[in-house]
């Protein structure tokens, strides 16, 4: 433990000496989180020793402490408890130290240790694999800050709604696990918000089966929306496509992004497509193209144009899809363009 007799507001010299001894860039800490250097008590060598024990080399330790200097303010006991907890879902120390290097803030947030522990056990009981739980710990740490009862309540709400929408008991577990692994932030919602969003869809004449389809297609992101934002997006699409409520519903089922994206995003993407000479009728035929950013659309159009493919005349399906889908379509068009045309009337030269 390092303490200092310096007055409050002054940097702790012992802390700085210890950090320098570990080749840590103190200037970087001073610039980003100087308050750490002002603390009277710090555990620099102790935390470094724990990291070293886990297999971190000098460079890794320096990087971790530069990115998350507040790590040195935790007691060794706190960090050892956190280590034991994360080891519960990590394969080994090698994997753990790799995760700490990538996501130091997630590991060194120890205020919710008991909640983390209870939630890890709950997720394991649910059937989530450890590699998914470690992904949650690093990329969605806030879901572990919830008391486990809150997460249990959310899962029960989702299960209840899944069954009430016609989902089967047999498929429910798989559905929940898939939804969670795709979008763990779903747990940060409230039961009321979920209920309101589902009711909004039902009021807009989506059948239970269609609502379930939308939930799966949108990976649960629908719960991060509000009835007001969905209403605005739907009204915007209706006015652009000049379609009936039924036609709009069909378009939304075909392309849930029409429901998910805000009016500002949809407007920008529509304008981007129209500027490229694409018609509203074409967009209506392949609305999924609105899932792509304007930059991606421009890049793809440029690539296709270089092959002589005119998107203004053809279908937008070749423009659509994931990066992989596009590359496959592009490859097909390219090979078609390069293939020599066989002329059955042309004489065949045969050497004697």
What does this structure look like?
The chain has 352 residues and is mainly alpha-helical. It has a domain at 1-110. It has 20 helices and no strands. Helix 10 packs across helix 11 (169-182). The longest helix is centred in the middle third of the chain and has 17 residues, at 148-164. Mean pLDDT is 89; it is low at 1-7 and 346-352.
Structural class: mainly alpha
What is the rounded Rg? Answer: 28 Å
Which percent bin holds the helix content?
A: 55-70%
Total helical elements: 20
Mean pLDDT across the residues is: 89
In total, how many beta strands? 0
- Poorly predicted ranges (pLDDT <50, ≥5 residues)? 1-7, 346-352
């Amino acid at each position: 433990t390092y303490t200092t007799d310096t007055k409050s507001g002054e940097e702790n010299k012992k802390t700085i000496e210890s950090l320098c001894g570990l080749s840590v860039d103190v200037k970087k800490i001073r610039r980003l989180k100087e308050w750490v250097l002002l603390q009277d008590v710090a555990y620099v060598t102790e935390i470094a020793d724990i990291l070293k024990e886990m297999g971190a080399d000098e460079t890794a330790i320096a990087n971790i402490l530069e990115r998350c200097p507040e790590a040195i303010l935790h007691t060794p006991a706190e960090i050892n408890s956190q280590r034991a907890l994360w080891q519960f879902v990590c394969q080994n120390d090698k994997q753990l130290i790799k995760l700490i290097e990538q996501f130091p803030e997630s590991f060194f947030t120890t205020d919710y240790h008991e909640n983390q522990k209870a939630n890890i056990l709950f997720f394991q009981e649910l059937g989530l694999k450890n590699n998914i739980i470690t992904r949650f710990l690093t990329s969605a740490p806030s879901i572990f800050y919830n008391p486990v009862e809150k997460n249990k309540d959310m899962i029960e709400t989702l299960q209840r709604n899944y069954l009430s929408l016609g989902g089967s008991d047999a498929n429910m577990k798989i559905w929940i696990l898939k939804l969670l692994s795709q979008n763990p932030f779903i747990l940060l919602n409230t039961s009321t918000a979920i209920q309101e969003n589902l009711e909004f869809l039902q009021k807009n004449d989506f059948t239970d089966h269609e609502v379930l389809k939308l939930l799966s297609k949108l990976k649960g992101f629908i719960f991060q929306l509000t009835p007001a934002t969905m209403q605005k997006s739907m009204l915007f699409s209706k006015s652009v496509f000049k379609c009936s409520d039924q036609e709009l519903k069909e378009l939304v089922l075909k392309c849930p992004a029409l429901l998910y994206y805000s009016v500002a995003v949809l407007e920008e993407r529509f304008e981007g497509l129209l500027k490229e000479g694409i018609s509203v009728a074409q967009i209506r035929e392949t609305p999924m193209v609105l899932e792509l950013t304007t930059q991606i659309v421009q890049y793809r159009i440029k690539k296709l144009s270089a092959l002589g493919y005119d998107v203004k005349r053809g279908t937008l399906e070749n423009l659509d899809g994931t990066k992989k889908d596009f590359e496959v379509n592009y490859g097909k068009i390219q090979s078609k363009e390069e293939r020599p045309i066989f002329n059955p009337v042309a004489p065949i030269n045969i050497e004697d």
